[in-house]
Amino acid sequence: MSFQRCPQSQDGGHSGRKVRSKEELEHLNQASEEINQVELQLDEARTTYRRILQESARKLNTQGSHLGSCIEKARPYYEARRLAKEAQQETQKAALRYERAVSMHNAAREMVFVAEQGVMADKNRLDPTWQEMLNHATCKVNEAEEERLRGEREHQRVTRLCQQAEARVQALQKTLRRAIGKSRPYFELKAQFSQILEEHKAKVTELEQQVAQAKTRYSVALRNLEQISEQIHARRRGGLPPHPLGPRRSSPVGAEAGPEDIEDGDSGIEGAEGAGLEEGSSLGPGPAPDTDTLSLLSLRTVASDLQKCDSVEHLRGLSDHVSLDGQELGTRSGGRRGSDGGVRGGRHQRSVSL
């Protein structure tokens, strides 16, 4: 049952990855097109900004050469006007923060009033919920009070700065009235160019943000495609048929033994020698084979000869007829006797002399 459902899940997963890869490719192409378009617009905006900047500098230099020294004399006045305008904007922001702090303080006081009414509703029993709400509202009132006082002090500070800046503007206007009148065209032209440059600068900044966002989407789509590709490769590697884990069949009779067969034959010989020596020791004293004199060639020859048999049941009887030093153990021990007193002969017995 599970074998029949497995191909369906594989097909579903494959189709799902195919759809995802198609969507990510579309996102990648869209992001690439958007990057190209927005970068072209960004190049044009930067070129326009540089052109306006150069043009404004050229016109202002021309205007300044015509007006002469009155521009430098009137410059402190226009600088004071700029500072007064900034101080006025800061005063407005501080006033908004102070109004917000006052509203929060009033709301927190109303919450405290409601919590007190809830606590005092039942004098015989103290409700922990209302008590917790009252504590929370009290903390909010304290925080709002601190914020209100902080906003009030900040508003007073910036208001004083604004008043000082306006007073300086009035004083300079009285002192530099003539220079201010003569240099007015220069500073008005400068203000116009400054406003135009600020607008183009804001446009350049917006286009740079759009390019950054498009590149981010491009990177995300590319990363998703890489992940899908890695999943596909991992699935292909995991889908390869595993190597068989069962026992390997031995070579047929008459076939030459390979390296792996030789290793198996060596292990079989060791087991056969152990079994034969145990049986020989139980039957009687006999000359034990000297294993130190065995050579690798002799072991491989015996292993190759044993692999030609179609059964391995003869290994137990092999030690009765084979001696690795050229002597037959069967003749010395007199043969194995079973429970019936007869001589037990092994199947597929071979007499091998090295």
From TrEMBL:
It holds the Pfam family SH3BP5. Residues 258-267 have a biased composition (Acidic residues). Residues 345-354 have a biased composition (Basic residues). Its main location: cytoplasm. GO terms for biological process: intracellular signal transduction. It is found in: Cytoplasm. GO terms for cellular component: cytoplasm. InterPro entries: SH3BP5. Residues 278-293 have a biased composition (Low complexity). It comes from the Eukaryota. Residues 1-24, 234-293, 325-354 are annotated as: Disordered. Residues 134-231 form a coiled coil. Keywords: Coiled coil, Cytoplasm, Guanine-nucleotide releasing factor. GO terms for molecular function: guanyl-nucleotide exchange factor activity; protein kinase inhibitor activity; SH3 domain binding. Residues 1-12 have a biased composition (Polar residues). Interacts with GDP-bound and nucleotide-free forms of RAB11A. Functions as guanine nucleotide exchange factor (GEF) for RAB11A. The N-terminal half of the protein mediates interaction with RAB11A and functions as guanine nucleotide exchange factor. Four long alpha-helices (interrupted by a central kink) assemble into coiled coils, giving rise to a 'V' shape. Belongs to the SH3BP5 family. This is SH3 domain-binding protein 5. It comes from Papio anubis. The lineage of its organism: Eukaryota, Metazoa, Chordata, Craniata, Vertebrata. The gene is SH3BP5L.
